[in-house]
Amino acid sequence: MLSAYVAGDPDAGASIVVVQEIFGINSHIRSVVDAYAALGYRAIAPALFDRVMRGVDLEYTEEGMHAGLAVREQVAWATTTIDIAAAVDHVRRDQPVGVIGFCYGGGVAWLSANELSIDAAVSYYGGQIHQFIDRVPQCPTLLHFGEIDHMIPFGDIADVRASYPNIPIHVYQGAGHGFNCDVRASYNADASQLAHERTTAFFDRHLRSS
């Protein structure tokens, strides 16, 4: 059984599954869960690395990155979406559920959009989206990228945009990889705020419009 960080009213009218980076369920991911709970959602971050190593909680350092990558390489994409489906089922309660993911989690959010029964998906700097460019989202999907992300070639973003002209794809000027994370050196406050505003409006429209 996977562990998870959960916050918010169990009887909320909609829920959000937050998908971790390679750094595990660390303080930043917990703060994202708390932020969506504060907006009135039931929010959950499943510990996707529990299948390999329980309690992964890494810092944004070179050592943390290498440790996280080593664990991620042992986690299959197929089992990851199974675990996201379990988190969705855990919070659904016959109410809408959205998925949001960051970096590695951004790729997972993309796969969730085209493999799972969810109501909306948001991906931040999901480098693996290009790897799965042939998958077609089955729910409203929103993508965020940084203009100067050293981990995601700009050509990959252009390919995704060309393949899915109807999906809103935002590229933030001067923003790099991890621009949303306020404990990373790459944090970009302006890009983070604008992406957050767009994301909350997107979730409000697709999860709470009824």
Amino- and carboxy-terminal Cα gap: 34 Å
Number of strands: 7
The helix content is: 25-40%
What structural category characterises the helix and strand content? alpha/beta
In N-to-C order, the SSE pattern is EEHEHHEHEEHEH
**Main β-sheet description:** 7 strands, mixed
Strand content range: 15-25%
Q: Uncertain spans, ≥5 residues at pLDDT below 50?
A: none
The number of distinct helices, counting runs of at least 4 residues, comes to 6
**Taking strands numbered 1, 2, ... along the chain, how are they ordered across the largest sheet?**
1-3-2-4-5-6-7
Shape descriptor reads globular
The averaged pLDDT comes out at 96
Q: What does the radius of gyration come to?
A: 16 Å
Structural account:
The protein has helices at residues 27-38, 62-72, 77-92, 104-115, 154-163, 189-207, and strands at residues 4-7, 15-19, 42-46, 97-102, 120-124, 141-146, 169-172. The chain is α/β, with parallel strands linked by helices. Strands 1-3-2-4-5-6-7 form a seven-stranded mixed β-sheet, with helices on both faces. Strand 6, helix 5 (154-163) and strand 7 form a beta-alpha-beta unit. The longest helix is centred in the last third of the chain and has 19 residues, at 189-207. The chain is globular and about 40 Å long. The N and C termini lie far apart (34 Å).
